[in-house]
UniProtKB/TrEMBL annotation:
Protein name: TetR family transcriptional regulator
Keyword Translocase in annotation: no
Sequence segments annotated as region (Disordered): 1-20
Gene3D superfamilies assigned to the protein according to its UniProt record, in alphabetical order: Tetracycline Repressor, domain 2 (1.10.357.10)
Domain HTH tetR-type as annotated: residue spans: 24-84
PANTHER family: HTH-TYPE TRANSCRIPTIONAL REGULATOR BETI (PTHR30055:SF234), HTH-TYPE TRANSCRIPTIONAL REGULATOR RUTR (PTHR30055)
GO terms for MF: DNA-binding transcription factor activity; transcription cis-regulatory region binding
DNA-binding region, residue intervals: 47-66
Organism: Metallococcus carri
InterPro entries, per database record: Homeodomain-like_sf (IPR009057), HTH-type_TetR-like_transc_reg (IPR050109), HTH_TetR (IPR001647), Tet_transcr_reg_TetR-rel_C_sf (IPR036271)
Organism domain of life: Bacteria
A Pfam family the protein falls into: TetR_N
Keyword annotations of the record: DNA-binding, Transcription, Transcription regulation
Length: 216
């Protein structure tokens, strides 16, 4: 009678991949848990100990996965912004006319301003802190580039649907819409959030056509 076959031990490569996936999943869990605290307190007022105190994880666990506050916060914002990008990519994929895309994009900007203002405040806080914190710069540049690329996909699709072309290059287009959003976020934080959302939606819908030009 043949001896039963022994199960093969996992290769070092597959074990390393499994460990990496497990660590990434835990980092994502920590990011989810930390985002609320970060959005409430901002970069300067948040420490790893503060994040641990308001999460299911111990300070030791947080410190095991993230060596510093800067590393954790950069990871959290990168994680959040990656989710944001997919929402706008859905608008690009689902819109069949230029007007439909324009309305959907403006409405989504206003919606995220109303529903997720603390996260956006954290992003602008982090971006400003990068002027003085070298450890943040690589992550900020990466996140900013991803947001610019997202905006450019929207404008290229909008121009294509309108049988037009972008009026400006990618950095200029991003600066226009980013400035519009940051201004609305300031109004929402310091003034009337509802009015800020309405103003942002109307302004974005009005500005978008100026960012494309009809073919000669």
């Amino acid at each position: 009678m043949a001896a039963p076959a022994r199960a093969l031990a996992p290769s070092p490569e597959s074990s390393a991949r499994a460990l990496g996936a497990k660590q990434d999943a835990r980092r994502d869990q920590l990011a989810e848990s930390a985002l609320e605290t970060l959005g409430e307190l901002g970069y300067a007022r948040t420490s790893l100990r503060e994040i641990a105190a308001k999460s299911p994880f111990s300070h030791g666990v947080v410190h095991y996965y993230f060596a510093s506050k800067s590393e954790l916060i950069a990871y959290c914002v990168r994680y959040y912004k990656a989710r944001c990008v997919t929402r706008y990519d859905a608008i690009v994929a689902d819109s069949s006319t230029a007007e439909e895309l324009r309305a959907a994009f403006a409405a989504k900007l206003a919606e995220t301003l109303r529903d997720e203002a603390p996260m956006h405040r954290l992003w602008y806080d982090l971006r400003t802190a990068a002027y003085f914190e070298p450890d943040l710069r690589e992550a900020v540049v990466e996140i900013d580039a991803g947001l610019e690329a997202m905006i450019w996909r929207i404008i290229e699709r909008y121009a294509d649907l309108a049988r037009a072309r972008p009026s400006f290059d990618s950095p200029t287009t991003y600066a226009v819409l980013d400035g519009l959003f940051e201004s609305a976020l300031t109004q929402a934080t310091l003034g009337d959030p509802a009015a800020a959302g309405q103003r942002l939606e109307a302004s974005a819908a009005a500005v978008l056509p100026t960012l494309i030009s009809l073919h000669p």
